[in-house]
Task: inverse folding
């Protein structure tokens, strides 16, 4: 069955994206399920499936976040996990890394919803054109929005820095 | 992490640098940008800083734990999607069945009606009148196969029927026919079909061009008492139709006269 194959191919990455976007795994699972149901109901034959799914999921997440006024918090890093493939860190190094990660997570959480969505979609490997379609903007604007999001992140991470973008 | 900028000599903007890093530029654009970056330390520094920021974002996101869904939860999601797919399939099947049932009903109704003699006779009469429309009067030498697809048919609202050609033509003719019918008709007999017919309250406008060589057939019904012919800004030609024996045909030459001027030469059949 076609939808089953689509589910197997894209459900995991869609769920991961939604967890990062909404900060809640249950919400992410529900939205992912609803997104595939929308696919079945709409049968978008001419669309790229992956881009279509992410776009619809983003809209559903955005509507859900507005309606429920959900406070977004990115999930905490799992304690004791080291990035795969890295050599074990010394305690001080590990502490510093965790602190930097926490700062970055807080900075991502503080981003406007659209900026965060654009960063996350870029992280999932979408082109600027696909990101623009999902965000409801132009392809040319995506570069500007990405740069602005990165600027906002760096400003949050180093507010006292004398050199700013 | 710092992103430095030299505000005194701005060069590449952030959007361009991001597009370069994301391989969103054309080959030519990328070459031009890289050429600038190799010569501009300031922009190269900003590119490096943006790249570092992107890498840090990626690393942070990869470090965020994504709670794994249980196999049961995944199976429940898939089951819900498959139920929706089955429901959609059933919906489409029933919609198609309803259309087929409606079509079958119409066929059954028609077959039943045909079995009733008065109804059958009425249907046959309507069909005959549809297929047996009067044939257009053709001038000698013009074969039926030369008829162009541009055709209009209408019921004139006045006793005076005006035919207005926008311009005198290079050559070609107008066959004016009067028949014992109720509807007026106009069609291209030979030549191109670029000329457009426009039905007006008092007749017909033929949007031709001075270079046109097209021949036309205009049929007027028996209700018309006068036919007026106007070509461009030329004089109005009035042809009385009353007390003429129908069918009646007049061939009007739309090309130049022997004197080298555009004019109308009337030739009766």
Result:
């Amino acid at each position: 069955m076609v939808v089953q194959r689509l589910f197997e191919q894209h459900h995991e990455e869609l769920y991961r994206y939604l967890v990062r976007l909404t900060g809640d795994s249950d919400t992410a699972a529900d939205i992912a399920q609803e997104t595939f149901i929308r696919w079945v109901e709409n049968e978008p034959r001419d669309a790229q499936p992956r881009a279509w799914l992410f776009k619809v999921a983003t809209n559903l997440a955005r509507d859900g976040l507005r309606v429920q006024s959900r406070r977004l918090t990115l999930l905490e890093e799992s304690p004791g996990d080291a990035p795969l493939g890295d050599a074990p860190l010394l305690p001080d190094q590990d502490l510093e890394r965790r602190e930097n990660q926490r700062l970055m997570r807080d900075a991502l959480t503080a981003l406007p919803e659209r900026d965060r969505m654009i960063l996350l979609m870029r992280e999932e490997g979408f082109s600027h054109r696909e990101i623009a379609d999902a965000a409801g903007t132009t392809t040319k604007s995506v570069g500007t929005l990405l740069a602005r999001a990165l600027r906002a992140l760096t400003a949050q991470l180093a507010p006292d820095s004398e050199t700013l973008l | 992490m710092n992103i430095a900028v030299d505000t005194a000599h701005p060069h590449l903007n952030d959007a361009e640098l991001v597009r370069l890093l994301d391989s969103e530029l054309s080959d030519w654009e990328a070459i031009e940008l890289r050429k600038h970056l190799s010569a501009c330390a300031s922009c190269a520094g900003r590119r490096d800083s943006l790249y570092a920021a992107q890498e840090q974002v990626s690393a942070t996101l990869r470090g965020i734990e994504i709670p794994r869904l249980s196999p049961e939860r995944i199976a429940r999601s898939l089951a819900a999607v498959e139920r929706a797919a089955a429901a959609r399939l059933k919906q489409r099947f029933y919609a198609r069945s309803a259309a087929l049932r409606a079509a079958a009903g119409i066929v059954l109704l028609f077959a039943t009606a045909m079995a009733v003699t008065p109804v059958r006779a009425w249907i046959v009469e309507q069909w005959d009148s549809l297929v047996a429309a009067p044939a257009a009067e053709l001038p000698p030498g013009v074969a039926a196969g030369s008829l162009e697809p541009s055709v209009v048919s209408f019921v004139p609202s006045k006793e005076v029927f005006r035919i207005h050609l926008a311009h005198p033509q290079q050559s070609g003719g107008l066959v004016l026919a009067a028949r014992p019918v109720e509807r007026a008709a106009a069609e291209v007999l030979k030549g191109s079909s670029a000329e457009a017919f426009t039905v007006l309250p008092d007749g017909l406008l033929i949007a031709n061009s001075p270079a046109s060589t097209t021949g036309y057939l205009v049929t007027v019904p028996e209700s018309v008492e006068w036919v007026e012919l106007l070509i461009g800004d030329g004089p109005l030609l009035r042809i009385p139709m009353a007390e003429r024996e129908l069918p009646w045909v007049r061939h009007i030459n739309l090309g130049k006269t022997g004197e080298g001027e555009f004019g109308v030469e009337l030739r009766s059949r």
Summary: DSSP finds five helices and eleven strands in chain B. The mean pLDDT of chain B is 76.
